[in-house]
Amino acid sequence: MSQTEPTSTLQEDAGTTLPHGAAARRGPFRAGERVQLTDERGRMNTITLTPGTAYHTHKGFLNHDSLIGQAEGSMVENNVGQLYQALRPLLSDFVLSMPRGAAVVYPKDAGQIITMADIYPGARVVEAGVGSGALSISLLRAVGDSGYLHSFERREEFADIARGNVETIFGGPHPAWRISLGSFQDEVVAQEAPGSVDRVVLDMLAPWECLDAVATVLAPGGVWINYVATVTQLSRTAEAIRADGRFTEPDAWESMVRGWHLEGLAVRPDHRMVAHTGFLMVTRRLADGVTGLNLKKKAKAEFTEEDLSAWTPEAVGERAVSDRKLRRAARDAASTVQTRGTKSKITDAETGGGAPGH
Fold it and tell me: pTM surpassing 0.85?
């Protein structure tokens, strides 16, 4: 399968060369971009600026044209005097409001993945389980234009949604991104050279099934990080890694985020928090021919046939997503890109933004 070298996509802004997508984050509001409106009661809504249209509420309407050309952080007034604060959505805002077909990786987990897996500019990264593209966006920001992210997704509908969301936030295709359709464990060894990948990020139901594929493409010292939803998945993956011997002892954790209410002297924790979303587990590839340390354990893990046959999406709490909902989310993601003047769709087993291959 042929692969091409990346073309230069750096942008010029006032004589300064910027990384891909950076120019779209600066300057006045432009037609086609998303703007976050906050009203006087603190309620937020995100709109896509479209000339000639208006944002309607039960308290009047706000013309989009009154926002286009305004500086970020402006205060605008609708037809009945309702004030709105206008800002570009942050990445965390975009992820939670973008079109989706699958559950997204929350910002708190994406940040942990970037840091704990040491995703750095120029790194070569592969991921599986693209979903709606939330984690792909964070990974692309981390590897930069000079890096490489190859994403694998089983379902074409999810891939289309992810592509639309990625192109929306970057203002078009990202030069470091490739996306392929198919099973990760089959496709990654066919498309990536042995030992050529720096980091592997898996968000899938049964990551232990990918153990041989990960060990093949991951360079010695490379990091493999898994995002799983349940303790049973976490246990099964950890025991498979230990039994294999080609990786370091896995570490696992979860993070919880609790906001605080700040109003005068009424400073207290919020009543709601983002608690459990998933577990993260990280391990590293050892050098070829080296066997990992045999750390002493108090108990030996055993799995029954009933355990091994229970790994279905329904059994671990995943909700089925209807084809109708997926098609609608894909249209929503693509429509935002169209407004900016770009549109693309996966039409075969593999497409990409021209990132380097092997």
Answer: no
